[in-house]
Amino acid sequence: MEGQPGFQLPGTMTSEDTPMWLRMVNEIFFLSDLSSIIRASGKWSKKMRSDNGVLHPPHKPSNPDYLIFVNAFFGLEIPHDLPPTAGPVGPLLSPTCPPPDQECRAFLARHKSVLYIALGTHIILPHTGTAKVVNAANNLQEDGLIDDVIWAMGYGQDV
Fold it and tell me: What is the reported pTM?
């Protein structure tokens, strides 16, 4: 997503088709309110801390002084900054999974070769990328290599 989180202009969820001037406006339009935002967040957090009996200032280490475990597919997911105390432990996959429901069992019984597509929670394909995946799946189906496709999508994603 372009712009500051929570401050994007309507209709600018991705920059794929966004003109340059709108991208620039999307980056800077909140600057006029920045002082109010900082002042309000400082007052809010001070009040919340004092209401809960926390009188000492918050601890702000430059790097975490605790161990962090990372459950990720390195090389396939979007890169993130990791502190020196990070330890890769993933991917962690459950050794068991719930059995398919009746509708799913009926679907799989009617098909011999099903293509399963799951891109994870961090991937947002541009229109051209999505079109390539759909065209490839259609070509596989036309060639008789697959019967059907199951495309897993996260909850709340636009299709």
Answer: 0.41
